[in-house]
Design a protein that fits this description.
With 218 residues, the chain is of the alpha+beta class. The chain contains five helices and nine strands.
Length: 218
C-alpha cells in the first residue's frame, strides 16, 4: 500500500500546487445565538447556495476597501472553509475576519461598517430577526497589490472579480468540493501503480535477457 499512497500524495501535491490566488479561512459552525437585524441588501452564502461571483472594490493602500457578507444556515460544530478566488492578472491582498452577530450588536463601529459596506447578493432565507440563528458575518478587506506608472490606476484601483465559496468539510477532513478530485486521484493511483510495476518488471526482464543473447552470438 505504500506505493499507491505515495503516488496519491504526489498527485495531490501537484494538484494543490497548481491552485493559485486563493485566500481562505477555516472555521467551525457556531452555536445558535441571538439574531441580528441585518441590512436588507446584505448578500449571503449558505450550504445550499455556496458560491457568489462578484466584484470587490480595492483600496490603493491602508487596511483595504471593506465588504461584508453573511454566512448562514451553518451546522454547529461542523468545519467550513471560506475561499476567495481571483485571477492572477489582478494582484490583490485580502484580509478575512469572521464576527458573530453578538459582537456586531455590541460594537457600534462594526455595526456601522456592516450597514455601510454590505455586499449585495442573494440574501439568506428570511427569518425572524430575534430568532436564534447559526450564522457568522464575514468582513473582507481588499488592497491592490501591484505598482504601476499610471498615477490614476494607483490612486483608484479597479474592482477585482472574485468567487466567494463556502465549502463544508466532509467528516471534518476535506472540503466537500475536493471529494470528486480526491476520488479521481485515488482511481488514477490505483490504476497507475500496478501498471508501473508491470512496466518495471518488463524492463528488468528485457535487461536480464540481453547479456544471454550477446553470449550466444559470441
Amino acid at each position: 500500500m505504500g506505493g499507491p499512497l505515495l503516488l496519491l500524495l504526489l498527485l495531490l501535491g501537484a494538484a494543490s500546487g497548481a491552485v493559485a490566488n486563493v485566500e481562505k479561512v477555516i472555521f467551525t459552525g457556531p452555536a445558535a445565538g441571538a439574531g441580528l437585524v441585518l441590512p436588507d441588501r446584505l448578500g449571503a452564502l449558505t450550504p445550499a447556495a455556496p458560491v457568489l461571483r462578484t466584484n470587490l472594490s480595492r483600496a490603493a493602500d491602508g487596511p483595504g476597501a471593506e465588504a461584508w457578507l453573511l454566512l448562514g444556515d451553518l451546522d454547529e460544530g461542523r468545519r467550513y472553509e471560506l475561499r476567495v478566488c481571483w485571477a492572477a492578472i489582478e494582484p490583490t491582498s485580502f484580509s478575512l475576519q469572521l464576527h458573530d452577530p453578538s459582537s456586531i450588536a455590541a460594537t457600534p463601529a462594526l455595526a456601522r461598517l456592516l450597514a455601510a459596506h454590505a455586499l449585495p447578493g442573494p440574501p439568506a432565507r428570511r427569518r425572524d430577526a430575534t430568532a436564534p440563528a447559526r450564522q457568522l458575518l464575514l468582513r473582507i478587506r481588499a488592497t491592490a497589490d501591484y505598482f504601476a506608472d499610471d498615477a490614476r490606476l494607483m490612486a483608484r484601483p479597479p474592482p477585482v472579480l472574485v468567487d466567494l465559496v463556502l465549502d463544508p468539510f466532509l467528516a471534518g477532513l476535506v472540503p466537500r468540493s475536493l471529494a470528486p478530485t480526491l476520488a479521481y486521484l485515488a482511481l488514477v493511483a490505483l490504476v497507475a501503480w500496478p501498471l508501473a510495476r508491470w512496466l518495471v518488471a518488463g524492463l528488468r526482464s528485457a535487461a536480464g535477457s540481453a547479456p544471454g543473447r550477446a553470449e550466444k552470438r559470441d
